[in-house]
Write a structure and sequence with these properties.
The protein is of the alpha/beta class and 433 residues long. The protein has helices at residues 13-24, 26-33, 63-67, 83-93, 103-120, 136-143, 158-170, 174-183, 192-195, 198-212, 231-239, 301-317, 361-371, 402-413; strands at 4-9, 37-43, 57-59, 73-76, 97-100, 124-125, 149-155, 222-223, 242-252, 257-267, 279-286, 290-297, 346-356, 376-381, 390-397, 400-401, 418-427. The protein is elongated, with a radius of gyration of 24 Å. Bound molecules: 1,4-dihydronicotinamide adenine dinucleotide, the ligand N[C@@H](CC=O)C(=O)O and sodium ion. Sodium ion is lined by residues 127-128, 130-132, 134-137, 307.
């Protein structure tokens, strides 16, 4: 069979990893693909110190890769959503298959991209866009195809999990750990995407679309990052038997699909609570299979390259025939499935507030909550520090609708005995793991 020629656009962390792994494991990859897969053209602003580009055509203009008539598969690894969109649409227009690791691009422009790909009869593959090296897209679209997905919950940002873990285990400072994540190549070009939950929301958009057949709709994901999680919350959560993890959650209920990304208290005995560092994990609950867990590196050059190359091989196997698995754009969207507004989501809550150290304050707070139909599951009340007349009060509640909790928090913050804002972190038991 004819060799399949690959053009790589962008030679940064993932581009260099892909170049090196594909060359290093070339013989094995060819044998498994059943044909020769070779990188013939690289588009990069500059060479990469770890990549030997001899024998490969190199262009400073990445659009030269798209225009190269010998390239069958264009691999987009430049990141961002402007030039990347232009590049991917140009490659599709040239009738080339595309592989990308770019979750921002898929989450925000996927509907347009997949429509163009469908019209042209080419594939756009994106395994590396969610959970780095973990083959979660393949698991959901192929391995779990028989299941109604009840819910999925995942740690899907490596940088955020690395920061939370280092804060939890070593008491390190947020900014210091973020800097290390950037040096290790884990963080996005704009690291606020990692710490404010935007990157996780991009990934959840993709997972929810596959799991529920809803169009990609990044703007409908409720998004909170980890930047407001404090060392005290980490400590109090531990006292209550929980760990704080930044989760992306999609769940199908009677009203539609919940899509949300936020810090979450997870019981410490759960596997997800013990996923640390740059590792990611996605727990998927299917009606037939029950719970399955996918665990592995969520970022990094060669781990991500592993997924990029898996897509290249999938596409290469099908280059002269019909693609075996319909790409995302070939879905007929499920009918009548709405996205549930956050106010209608029900969870338990961890609440932390600073209150004046007087008799009766505790009872007043308990009354406000019970008048709102909120039951308290556990309480921690600390002794005041010497010279301080306020104390932290930490509560764990039973499940309640977000809209009722919003109203109760407004009322609590209106009390003179409650100083400043009430911190709220949602709690998930993740039963059936
Ligand atoms: N770093 C990681 O662990 C992971 C990254 N990703 C995604 O992979 C993509 C690439 O990420 P990284 O490799 O980390 O980024 P990076 O910043 O290390 O690499 C991007 C490279 O593309 C080049 N580039 C950008 N625009 C270009 C242009 N117009 N012409 C030529 N070269 C251009 C840059 O000079 C840089 O070398 C992003 O979409 C990212 O979200 C996905 C999974 C994991
Ligand atoms: N910045 C991302 C990279 C992988 O998608 C992360 O930290 O998870
Ligand atoms: Na993946």
């Amino acid at each position: 069979m004819k060799p399949v020629n690959v053009g790589i656009c962008g030679l940064g962390t993932v581009g260099s990893g892909t170049f090196n792994v594909l060359n290093r494991n070339n013989a094995t990859i060819d044998r498994r693909t059943g044909r020769e897969v070779r990188i013939t053209h690289v588009g990069a602003r500059r060479d990469h110190p770890d990549c030997d580009l001899s024998g490969v055509r190199v262009s400073r203009d990445i659009f030269d890769v798209v225009r190269d008539p010998d390239v069958h598969i264009v691999v987009e690894l430049i990141g961002g959503t402007d030039t990347a969109l232009e590049l991917v649409l140009a490659a599709i227009a040239e009738g080339k298959h595309v592989v990308t690791a770019n979750k921002a691009l898929i989450a925000q422009h996927g509907n347009e991209i997949f429509k163009a790909a469908e019209d042209k009869g080419v594939t756009v593959a994106f395994e590396a866009s969610v959970a780095g090296g973990i083959p979660i897209i393949k698991a959901l679209r192929e391995g779990l195809v028989a299941n109604e997905i009840d819910w999925l919950a995942g740690i899907i940002n490596g940088t955020g999990n690395f920061i939370l873990t280092e804060m939890q285990q070593k008491g390190r400072l947020f900014d210091d750990v973020l800097k290390e994540a950037q040096e290790l190549g884990y963080a996005e070009a704009d690291p606020t995407f990692d710490v404010e939950g935007i990157d996780a929301a991009h990934k959840l958009t993709i997972l929810a679309s596959i799991a529920y057949g809803v169009p990609l709709q990044f703007e409908s994901v409720y998004t909170e990052g980890i930047s407001l999680v404090t060392p005290e919350d980490v400590r109090y959560a531990e006292e209550l038997g929980y760990r704080i993890k930044h989760l992306g959650i999609a769940r199908r209920g009677t009203e539609g699909v919940e899509m949300r990304v936020h810090p979450t208290l997870v019981p410490e005995s759960r596997l997800l609570a013990n996923v640390n560092g740059v590792l990611n994990a996605v727990l998927v609950h299917g009606d037939a299979v029950g719970s399955t867990l996918y665990y592995g590196p969520g970022a990094g050059a060669e781990a991500t390259a592993s997924s990029v190359i898996a897509d290249i091989v999938d596409v290469a196997r099908e280059v002269d025939s019909r693609h075996a698995v319909p790409h995302l754009g070939n879905h007929t969207w499920a009918e009548g499935l709405d996205v549930v507004p956050m106010a209608s989501v029900e969870t338990s809550y961890y609440l932390r507030m600073q209150v004046t150290d007087e008799v009766g304050v505790m009872a007043r707070i308990a009354n406000i909550l019970s008048d709102s139909g909120i039951n308290i599951e556990a309480i921690i009340q600390k002794e005041p520090e010497p010279g301080d007349d306020t104390v932290p009060l930490i509560l764990l509640t039973q499940r309640v609708l977000e809209r009722e909790m919003n109203a109760a928090i407004d009322e609590l913050e209106g009390q003179t005995a409650v100083i400043g804002k009430v911190t709220r972190i949602r709690v998930e038991q993740l039963g059936g793991e």
